[in-house]
Every structure is written in C-alpha cells, then in structure tokens.
Amino acid sequence: MGRGKTNELSPPIGFPVNAPLANGARKAALAFIFVTVLIDVIAFGVIIPVLPHLVEEFVGGNASTAAYWIGVFGTMFAAIQFFSAPIQGALSDRFGRRPVILLSCLGLGIDFIVMALAPTLAWLFVGRVFSAMFSASFTTANAYIADVTPPEQRAKSFGMVGAAFGLGFIVGPLIGGVLGDINHRLPFWFSAGLALVNFCYGLFVLPESHPKERRTPNFDWHHAKPMGGVKLLRKFPQIWGLVAVVFIANFAHYVYPSTFVLFADVAYGWKEKQAGYVLALVGVLSVIVNVILVGRVVKALGERRALLFALACGVTGFLIYGFAPTGWIFLVGMPISALWAIAGPSTMALITRQVPADAQGRIQGSLSSLVSLAGIVAPAIFASSFGFFIGPHTPVHLPGVAFLVAAALLAGAWIVAWRFTDAAHYHEAAPASAGEGEPAPTEPSLQG
Fold first, then answer.
1. What is the rounded distance in angstroms from the CA atom of residue 43 to the CA atom of residue 135?
2. What does each C-alpha distance from 211 to 21, 36, 103, 122, 206 come to in angstroms?
3. DSSP secondary structure of 340-379
4. What integer pLDDT is reported at residue 123 of this predicted model?
5. Radius of gyration of the chain from Cα atoms?
6. Which residue numbers delimit the Major facilitator superfamily (MFS) profile domain (predicted)?
7. Separation of CA 421 from chain center
8. For residues 129 and 134, what is the distance between their CA atoms, to the nearest angstrom?
C-alpha cells in the first residue's frame, strides 16, 4: 500500500481530475472513512441479538440445533474474513482505495437485503458468506488513512477508527435488540439502509487517495496470503509464551458472539431487546475500562501483575456467568469480567519490550492474523458445547458450559503468562535486529 506523500488525490464524481484536495475535502474524506467503519461495525452489531433467533426459527424453534448452526455461521464468517482482508488490501494497492471501499458499501447493502428476504436457512447462509467478504474492508480503510494523513497525525486518525469500533459495538446491539423485538427481519433492513446511504454519500464525497503512479502494476498475490504474518512469529521465540496468551485469550473472547444470545434466552428468558441492552452494557464497560482504568492499573501494578490480575478477573467473571442461576447474578459478573480488558494493553507492552523497533508493525500484523485464526475455530467449539448441554442427550442441563470452557482457557493463559513473564524469562531489553518479514501494521484485540 502507498506510503509516499502526495498533495493531489483523484477526485470523486463531479470533481476536476488532478485537482488539489483542499482541507475541507480531506476532512470530509476522513469523516466518510469513520462513518464507513462505524456502519460496518453497527451493521454487524445490529444483527447480533436477532441472527440466532432467526436461525432458530428456520430450524423449528430448537435452540440446541440453532446453536450448532450459529457455530457453523461464525466459523465460516471468520474464515472468509481471514482470507478476504489481505485480498482486499492487495486489490486496493492495484486498483485504488475508492473502488474497493465503495464496492464494499454497496455489496453490504445488497447483501443485508438478501438476508432480510431469506426464505430458508440456506439463503441466510449465502447472505452471511457475502457479508463476510464485503465487510473485510478495515484493511483498506486503514490504508486510506495512511494515504491522506501526515505521519504526525496518523495516530489520532487511527484512534478515530478505534472509536468507531467502540461506538459501533455499543449502538449496534442496542438498535438491533429494539428493532428485533418488533420483527426479526427489521434489523437487516436497517443495516441495508445504512450501507446503501453510505454508498451514495461516498460516491459523491470520497476521493481516491492512491494515485495511479503509486499503485502496484499487477495484483500482488504474495501480500494477499493471510498466513504470511503468522509465519513471521517463528523468528521471535522469545515472545512465544506471550503470543500463546494472545491466542488463548482471544479464543476465549469468541464465547460472546457464539453463544450469548441463545444462552440468555435459554437460561433467563431474555429476548432480543434484553440481549441488546446487555451487549450494549458490555461495550460501555469495555470503553470505561480502556479509557479510564488501563493506564492507572498498569502504572500501579506494572505490566506483568496487571496482566495476571486481568486474566484472573476474566476467569472469575466467566465462572460467575457459567454458574449464575439468575439474570441479576449474571449482571454482577459483568464489571468483574470487564477488567479483563486490561490484559490486552499489558500483553502488548510486554511483547514490544522483546521485539526490536524495526519489527513492531510486522509483529502487530502477525498477531492480528493469529487472532483471526482463533475466530475460525472458537465459534464451533463454544456453540457445539452449548448446544450439547441444552440438548436431549446431555447428562446435565448446563446452559453456561461455554463460559466455563472459556474460564478454563483463561486459567491456562494465566498459567502461561505467570510462567513466561517470571524473572527467568522476562527481559527489559529487546533484541537488536528483526530481519525481513511481512509488513502488516495492524493491531490485534485482547479484551473481554
């Protein structure tokens, strides 16, 4: 993707070719990118409270069978995004950012209409396949920001994208829960409208940020390979323990999208509206912890102890979730589980101490690829365990079993973190050189 500076960007429809992009136009373009990411996240969040119930309708109201299908849907979605994201990035390097971003908006809008009208489970599955392909546009959005933003302002602009994620995962489930309580198809229509309005807006506002002279002459299959970043981690054995913590913790985090909505219905009778409220509360607590508590806790405890404290909170919260006999006890576990969000920054700080400066971006990208791999496997495991323990052949009715599996995983991560970051393994100084690898400057997520 282009990294050079330019004062001229290819304009949108109605603008003269090679006209300098004024400050106002640049701000409008960045605002569009923010809105695009926000809409992608909201559109994903809106259907979280209703998709499991729609699947349940298609399988005759059987929650156990629906859980298995939700696992299939989740695994498929993550697998397609794992392969689609680097391909979209390579396409934007070859053909420009604007057509890839606009095609993503248009494709999402049409796809949500397909899902809103889906008469069978098979059609809904097809809709989710295309939704996964078109919603993997975050790579291109990040590249666009790098194209149009001066280096000294990029951190602020990337923070804007992070804010879009946080806001989207608060607003999306809230809207989806309210609309889904009226009709299960209504959230899909709402998401379709958002995406299509954004496409029309971008068609006239969004300029091209990647001029022809900076594009790759051919489609670059080398940088479109999703496993390239994961292979890079083999060069840094000193961080393997912490990499394992990142993988396990993110694996455990998939218990929420894989099981929560059906679990809340089976265990407490919470329908779409209540599930949407709770998911929005999860987002609010996550923002509070990240904005207010992370810095204070890490400063007070140090990175190692903050990591161990956060993982312990995650284990405790999941145990409460797994055994909570009533909804209010489940809610008691939420502030405790939210403190798990401290683990992400603590782990990344420890990793950066062990990696040289010339490899930081590539390591972050590699960890993002690893997190994507966790998303391919985790939904099937959590959904199938939940489905079995509420099904007719279960030895004991235990709707919270998936949360107990997640608690066991985080307990394992705690042991790895405690062992790997002790005095014998944890070094303040980073190695001198990194060598060559795959450039992929994105950041993984490790939070509850």
1. 9
2. 13, 21, 18, 41, 14
3. GGGHHHHHHHHHHHTS-GGGHHHHHHHHHHHHHHHHHHHH
4. 92
5. 22
6. 29-425
7. 27
8. 9
Query: Which single residue is written with the structure tokens 């993707």?
Result: 1
Both structure tokens of 212? 């022809």
What integer is the mean pLDDT of 396-412? 95
Q: How many residues does the chain have?
A: 448
Class of the CATH-defined domain 20-204 = mainly alpha
Q: Within a 10 A sphere around the Cβ of 94, how many other Cβ atoms?
A: 16
Nearest by Cα to 282 from 385, 186, 171: 171
What digits encode the pLDDT tens for the residues 200-228? Answer: 887 887 777 777 766 666 655 555 566 66
* Residue 436, C-beta contacts closer than 8 angstroms, at least 6 positions apart: none
Q: How far is CA 325 from CA 98, 128, 364, 411, 430, in A?
A: 51, 34, 40, 22, 48
pLDDT band at 251 (very low <50, low <70, confident <90, very high): very high
Distance CA 68, CA 383 (A): 6
Position with higher pLDDT, 442 vs 181: 181
Regarding the domain delimited by 227-425+442-448, which CATH topology (the fold level of the hierarchy) does it fall under?
Growth Hormone; Chain: A; (1.20.1250)
Positive or negative CA dihedral for 349, 350, 354, 355? negative
Delimit the domains of the chain by residue range. Answer: 20-204, 227-425+442-448
Give the span between the Cα atoms of 350 and 304, in whole angstroms: 8
The structure's pTM equals 0.73
The per-residue pLDDT for range 91-138, each reduced to its tens digit, is 777 777 788 888 888 888 888 899 999 999 999 999 888 888 877 566
